[in-house]
Prior knowledge:
- By secondary structure, the chain is α+β, with helices and mostly antiparallel strands.
- It has two domains: 6-150, CATH 3.30.470.20; 160-303, Succinyl-CoA synthetase domains (Rossmann fold, 3-Layer(aba) Sandwich), CATH 3.40.50.261.
- It has ten helices and 14 strands.
- Strands 3, 4, 5, 6, 7 and 8 form a six-stranded antiparallel β-sheet that branches.
- Helix 2 (76-85) crosses helix 3, helix 7 crosses helix 8 and helix 8 (245-259) packs parallel to helix 9 (274-283).
- It is elongated and about 80 Å long.
- The protein starts with 5 loop residues before the first strand and ends in a 6-residue tail after the last helix.
Amino acid sequence: EILGMDIRGHTVHRVWVERASEIAREYYLSITFDRSAKKPLFMFTTEGGVDIEEVAATKPDALVRLHVDPLEGYRPWQGRHLVYGAGVSDAAERRQIEEIVGRLYEAFERCEAMLCEINPLVVTEEGEVRALDAKVTVDDNALFRLPEIAEMRDLAAADPLEALAREKGVTYVKLDGDVGVLGNGAGLTMSTVDVVTFVGGRPANFCDLGGGGDAQGVVDALEVITRDPQVRAIFFNIFGGITRCDEVARGILTALAEVKPVVPMVIRLVGTNAEEGRQLLAQANMITAETLADAARKAVAAVSQATGGFPA
């Protein structure tokens, strides 16, 4: 009955069979990367078996937090700090948990992970501490150094558009709107997504070309974006710094000749030789804009025209 079942959009192809455990208590243990502190962060609580967000919201004092200096690495006293801070009274339990804490940090470091979580970490009726369920999130940027982990990626479970983007080396995240967003640089692309939302549109994706805007990069990005049937218009936002905007414009026109998207495109160029770039695009009857807000409004209007004024 489990094989073939759909669980939150994922089809079950394989089943792991594990012996049942007689559970006396459930704990929670994790280590994640705290971006604000720029350090690994341990979290431990005896309130296991539930979402950690719920514990943090309802019983913040029950959650023990401890940062680890990455230059010093893990020290045994940190494991003791966690178990004593959470109020684990049984000495045998404390020793087992401290050992697991050390191994969890080792896994976090070796796998270049962003998160290693054990929930629940259980204590059996016999006093044995076991990790019954775990989740590990590895930094995608580190996978080229970790081929044994990269091989574990389940491509069948991935979003097909995100899998195609990964294959082409395009940074792409699927969203649920109808305005395709394409920019060069993560910060600029995130701002573009925000402005599309601000003017009343719904971004269909986050797609980052990186720092340049060469023709092949545009071709690859457009092939991914145009395969999304929800996309009704594409907003192309480019800042020409080192790369001149007239060169980017020529790259766009070369790419469009190859991909031939059937939805309208709005292109905003700003930076070095921006005016020359806009002239090249205007000669090709492309929709252009000078400001970010104006370009976003034109993209949203293009969607409205394509759908007859109704949401897609």
